[in-house]
Amino acid sequence: MNKFRLFFFLILALSIAAPGRCDTLESKLIDLIQDPSDFFFNIHANNEDFSPVPTDRNGTIRSNFLPTTLPLTWANITVKAKVLKDAGNIPQVDLVGMYGDLLALRAAESALDDVKPTFNDYSFGATISKNANENTRIFGGVRFSTIKMSVQLSSSSAVSFAGRSYNTFNIDMAETFFFTGITYKASENKYIIAQAAYGFKFKKIMSRIMVAKRRFEYGFDIFPEGFLVIQPFIGWHWYF
Amino acid sequence: MNRYTRYFSLLFSISLFFVAAAHAKVSVAPYYSFNFTGAAAIPNKGEMMFPINMVNDLGLIVKPSEKNSLMGFYELKYTGPGLHRWEGKPFTDRAMDHILFLRHQYDFNETYQMKTQFNYTKEYTRTGANEKWGTGLYDYGSYGLKLAGVRKFTPKLSTEGFFQYGHYNFPNYTDITEAATFGDVTGDNSVGLQDHTLLQPGIIIRFKDTKVNASYTNMAYSRQKVIYDTVQSSGSYYGGLQKDSIISFGIEHTQKIFSFLVIAPSLNYKIKDSNQNYLKINSTDATQTLASVTDLNQLDFNYFADYYDYNEYVIALPISVLLASHWEMFYSIEYDIKTYTKRPPKIGETLYDTNQKHKTDLTIMSAGFTFKPNPITRTTVFYTYQSQTSNLTYEGNQPYNYNGHVFGINLSYTY
Asked: Which of A15, B42, B94, B381 is the most exposed, having the fewest neighbouring CB atoms within 10 Å of its CB?
């Protein structure tokens, strides 16, 4: 039954991961070419995880596999540390940090003299959570999230497209989010997590639904106004 | 206080509260709900759509003493493009709402109760992805206060009388029709035209599983004046300020039939009255406006008094069937009939059928299955058929006559 649910989830996610058709595909592609920052920011968001550390653990190390590490070579690591335990009316407080790097870009920088990239991808924030009952927790918090990428090509390596020559590629987006969510312990090594976030600067809404098992987690991020509205992901975590 | 400070303050206050509560005997109960709907909508006009809707609620109930309780509630809501109920709005319209309220409840005794509530709402709208959030024509912000008194006659019978005050501000709204009528309008006459103050007294009666409610709403506009087709004592075609009123009445009943079938029929009736009229000059020539031609009778125009008055009925019948401990089936049908009392339907760009009154009938039928695998999760697969007919046949970009099929899935996580 678990495999069936996974299969169903993947098929469902893939079948509706197409660019939202409420705006025409042409208008969405034009938006993507003119400003790819939001598209890459949404992929960067797959690397983040600000859900709380389990009650009986001290921290979590996490890395996202699909679609970032593979196939995009976008390596990433998230570290969560519990600084305050949930006791009585005191909530649990976790500090979280994420860092990512685009390995293909680093390899290109080493292999090719005429590619000069810069890349910054990180997030940090705090999560406050409280047990509602023995299996359910409610959490919220604030995080700062940013991605910056700049690729400079020499004039001889410039890319020609639609009659124009491009030798720079820039992405720069930073946002501060307020997020809230719920976790439910369905079984000993299975948590169901749902959360939503709102970004102050760009009024960006995003949400996530995922299942966290003993080591792996499966879910999808939802970007209602994004180029890819629904982005499935697979990650790995270790609770310590 | 900017938004960053506001949200950090909210988070800090919540944290500080928990610390303080640790040193006092205060009971605290949280509430959370996340609701996501993804669907495929197939209208008979326009392209197939994949609408997304999302609602995220966070609440906290604090009982510092036997007689006092405090509730804070925040909702973030996103309504994506799709077959909306918004009259005359394009299917591509989308909206984002922030809703916040803080309520205090005081129990005098087992019979009397008083509630005080502060509300704040901010709505952003846009018609497409190329429009930035925060620049929508109908963006609005509102704040208000609600006072309510409850009397419990018996455990099954109670009444609640309430009074609500609200202020609504539309920072981006401009009246395109007015600009076409009067030429370019600038300064104080072009801003804040939809800003208004709302006063609403009402009553709610609850008897067993039946609820009856009635209210009177008065909306007083602070800048928008009433337009006429004759020169007023002010020396212009504008008279006093616009005032709208709405009388609404509703009744709903929940009935359990056997142990597995629940029906909840409801009827709502609304009467809107406005002193605003409608005036539009039919020529697109910039010289044919009241800025350059002082006598309206020299222009080709349409004028209708009481253009915005209407009566509206909404009749709904939702049915739920409990199939097993984790499965539920539902079916619902809803009729929404809106009739303008003085407005004729538009049948051409400048033509109106004055032998009829504008009427719109909306029918929504839904059916689906809900699976509840655990106490917080509900997964619903649904089909909806939505059909609207109207005697307005000149639609432009605003659909009035259409039908559509929606197939979707709803994921809900609630504590």
From this structure: A15
Query: Which residues, given as ranges, of chain A have pLDDT below 50?
Result: 1, 3-4, 6-8, 10-11, 14-22
Q: For residues B399 and B392, what is the distance between their CA atoms, to the nearest angstrom?
A: 10
CA dihedral A202, B137, B192, B341 (to 10 degrees): -140
User: What local confidence, expressed as pLDDT, does residue B412 receive?
Assistant: 94
* Closest B-chain CA to A141: B11
Q: Look at A130 and B30 and tell me if their CB atoms are within 8 Å.
A: yes
Q: Answer whether residue B331 shows pLDDT above 80.
A: yes
Q: How many Å lie between the alpha carbon of A35 and the closest alpha carbon of chain B?
A: 11
Contacts of B96 in chain A (CB under 8 A): 203, 205
Contact B96 A130 (CB under 8 A): no
Q: Is the pLDDT of residue B128 over 90?
A: no
pLDDT of residue B90: 76
pLDDT tens digits, one per residue of B47-56: 888 889 999 9
pLDDT value of position A152: 75
Q: Are B289 and B281 in contact (CB under 8 A)?
A: yes
**Which of A187-201, B86-100, B398-412 shows the lowest mean pLDDT across its residues?**
B86-100
Residue A137, pLDDT score: 92
Beta strands in chain A (DSSP E): 59-66, 74-84, 92-102, 115-131, 136-153, 159-161, 164-166, 168-187, 190-199, 205-212, 216-222, 230-239
The answer to whether the CB of A135 falls within 8 A of the CB of A184 is yes
Is A34 at the interface with chain B, CB within 8 A?
Answer: no
CA separation for the pair B11, B15 (Å, rounded): 6
CA distance B161 to B213: 10
Sort out which chain A residues have CB atoms less than 8 A from B79's CB and list them.
none
Amino acid A150: pLDDT? 84
A205:B411 CB<8 A: no
> Which candidate from B7, B29, B130 shows the least CB-CB separation from A27?
B130
Within 8 A by CB and 6+ apart from A43, the residues are A67, A68, A72, A74, A231
Decide if pLDDT at B190 tops 70: no
| Residue B331: C-alpha distances to residues B41, B279, B366, B385, B402 (Å) | 19, 44, 6, 12, 22
CB contacts under 8 A, A 64-123 vs B, are 88-91, 93
Query: Which residues, 6+ apart, have CB-to-CB distance to B301 below 8 Å?
Result: B181, B229, B279, B280, B281, B282
- Count of A-B CB contacts under 8 Å: 139
Out of B14, B28, B52, closest to residue A222 by CB: B52
Query: What are the backbone dihedrals phi and psi of residue B349, each rounded to the nearest 5 degrees, phi first?
Result: -60, -40
**Residue B9, φ and ψ in degrees, nearest 5:** -65, -40
**DSSP type of residue B190:** G
Q: A130: closest CA among B18, B332, B112?
A: B18
Query: Within B215-300, where are the H helices?
Result: none
A187 touches A176 (CB < 8 A): no
ipTM: 0.84
In this complex, do B415 and A136 lie within 8 Å of one another by their Cβ atoms?
A: yes
Q: Kindly state the helix (H) or strand (E) to which residue B302 belongs, with its residue range.
A: strand B301-304
Report how far residue A198's alpha carbon sits from residue A142's, in angstroms, rounded to the nearest whole number: 10
Query: Which one of A4, A5, A21, A89 would you mutate to disrupt binding with B, by most B Cβ within 10 Å of its Cβ?
Result: A89
